[in-house]
Amino acid sequence: MLAIFQAAGWPIWLLLIASIVAMALIVERLMYLRRGKIIPRKLLDEVVQVYRNNNITPDIIDKLEKSSPLGIVLSAALRNVDAPREVMKESIEEAGSGVAHTLERFLTTLGTIATLAPLMGLFGTVVGMIEIFGSQNAAGSNPAALAHGISVALYNTGFGLAIAMPTLVFYRHFRALVDSFIIDMEQQAVKFVDIVHSKRK
């Protein structure tokens, strides 16, 4: 592997750094963006039970807020449980926008790497081509320098594409996952609002 990096020239090290960053972000997002962690299965039922038992305390709200992203949204609803429907929905939307920002963390960086990696590979290709033309002289071409320039060009192009393709797949996957989580949280929060205000009627 080291021999490949040496043959590919210095531009490959930029791609190597990009691949390490992309791998770290993918692993981190895979660990964080798990449905059970973001939207615990029976959390809404538990919050409804707390509300129906009239057992809402600051400690329970704080515990709920720290439990999960859905807990943050539902804790905002519990804090405004005595407020009018519109005020309650507004507080949920504000909490939801903060949660969405947290869920989308690092996705911009991942998308940037997916876009930038082929360009970095192209840059390495250009460097390789410059070396090829630089190896030409009045006496003719230098075969060793010519071979090195071609290897720099091809290795960088291939490595850039090899980084970009899986990174783009994971970026799209995480993007869709976050969107589905946000929609699910919105639906559960609206369900809770409906339960609170239908009970009052």
UniProtKB/TrEMBL annotation:
InterPro entries: ExbB/TolQ_transport, MotA_ExbB_proton_chnl. GO terms for cellular component: plasma membrane. The keyword Membrane applies. Keywords: Cell membrane, Membrane, Protein transport, Transmembrane, Transmembrane helix, Transport. Residues 68-186 form the MotA/TolQ/ExbB proton channel domain. Signal peptide: none annotated. It is a multi-pass membrane protein. The chain crosses the membrane at residues 12-32, 106-130, 150-171. GO terms for biological process: protein import. It is found in: Cell membrane; Membrane. It comes from the Bacteria. The keyword Iron-sulfur does not apply. PANTHER family: MOTA_TOLQ_EXBB PROTON CHANNEL DOMAIN-CONTAINING PROTEIN, PROTEIN TOLQ. Belongs to the exbB/tolQ family. This is MotA/TolQ/ExbB proton channel family protein.
